[in-house]
Write a structure and sequence with these properties.
The protein is an alpha/beta fold. Helix content is 40%, strand content 15%. Helix 6 (123-134) links the parallel strand 4 and strand 5 (139-142).
Length: 184
Amino acid sequence: MKRHKTVPVPAPTLLVLAPALALLAATGCTGQPPPADLSDADKLARVEEMVEEVERRFPEVEAVSVEDVGRLLETGSVVLVDARAPREREVSWIPGSITSEEFEQDPGRYSDLTVVAYCTIGHRSSEYAERQNEQGRRVLNLRGSLLSWAHAGGPIVGPDGPTHRLHVYGETWNLAPARYETTW
């Protein structure tokens, strides 16, 4: 049996690496099977694990479920804010959502509505909601964001209308149901 040499890592290096290692662990880089090999049920379970980590990181950000957002959409009392990068939004988005830039141009326009931010899994939209809340604007986070929305069967549109294409940010987040074509 071949043995690997253990090399001590200086303490200052560990301090620099600790945040990166914590992020890898928090986002699902744990040596588990690649997402492509998972069933939809296993993907949804992985999404839930990642969402719970997001909620631990952002305890002050109020989250709203996909089901609750669906009810708010039915009554017209919500605006969804897509907190993803433009290259992600070019692929697909939740119908009727606006960009974070559009929201920030005139946040007062939406003062009578429930404002809900989303991204791929909820980390970036939680960061966005946190920043907006610090500025006195009440913004909630869509729990599980686009991945939970897709698993719940919520509609997604792209430049040509309804689509099953989804930008999932990176391989770690490639947890959309099998009916979706994913990119990152």
